[in-house]
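Not sure how to ask, but would you mind making up any protein sequence you like and the tokens describing how it folds?
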Amino acid sequence: MPISADQIRNLHKYEIRILVALERLMKRYRWVPLDQVKKTMGLSESEISYRLGRLMDMGMVRFDTVPYEGYALVFGGYDTLALLTLTKRGVVSALGCPIGEGKESIVYEGLGLGPVAMKFHHVGQRSFQSVRVTREYMPDEGHCPWIFASRYSAEREYDALTRLHPKTSVPLPVAINRHVVVMEYIRGINLNRCRLEDPAGVLDQILKEAGNAFRAGVIHADLSEYNVMVDEGRVYLIDWPQWVEAGHPNAGDLLARDMENITRYFQRKYHLDIPVKEAIRRVTE
């Protein structure tokens, strides 16, 4: 369900407290029993049931009976908590329309001191198990509700942006809360949606920026035409949650895959034939 600023503004203080309580209790429970909510809130069962019903109607909380009766935050509720905190801190003052959506995130336009992009990391339930196996930022053991995987993903991306900006052409990181990264709003469009006037020049920029990241000790590890933006001829590398250190045991393979993705795209669309080994050399020299 899309975020509704009106719904967030109209939340009752008890409903916000329930969201916060569920977030905290989900560190111990996959599904939080009603008795635990009551114990934490100190309100009557009828009041809590009414407020939980409203939160479920708004798509912020889910109830299930398997393996036992319990409640859990879903992304609508987690998004709400992040937005309330970012607003309280003065980072954002308005939420705009969605401007981009990927497999594991949705990006909204927002307003802070100026226009900002707000990236909500949404590591979905269906992809959670594969994420836990393949992403370094996930804990190896222990209880980790799938919505918190999104927080780890956001923290990973924010770390990369902070480390790379401004020496690498990436969006300026502004703030982070939970699974939401607030960053500079780039007005360009994704490389896969462009028709470039100077494809060779843009490819040169991509290799140069990948090289800047490499010299900062960072490999994107998910680079493709979908993770590059072009704004009036300037290239930005985006979407960094899967990055690895340049000294990682698989760094060479991951860099080679990045370069294969990029060179294959330019060969297919613009008939630019640059060997992968040459691209790697230009990045690492």
User: Anything to note?
Assistant: The longest helix spans residues 251-270. The mean pLDDT is 92.
